[in-house]
Task: structure prediction
Amino acid sequence: MSEHVYKHIELTGSSPDGIEAAVRNTIERASKSAHNMRWFEVRDTRGHIVDGRIDYWQVTVVVGFTLDG
Result:
């Protein structure tokens, strides 16, 4: 069994299309500069209201990735 060491980063992203889309947008954007991502945890969910309706969802996620080397 191999030993794993992870670094964690906290990211916040949004989407007008719901919580899952907000998470997906966050992970996809992060993958452009953070490599070896292995897992995520949703830490916070909130939304923005305009004129009594949900305008967009916002999520904060912690992403774990393995270190190079």
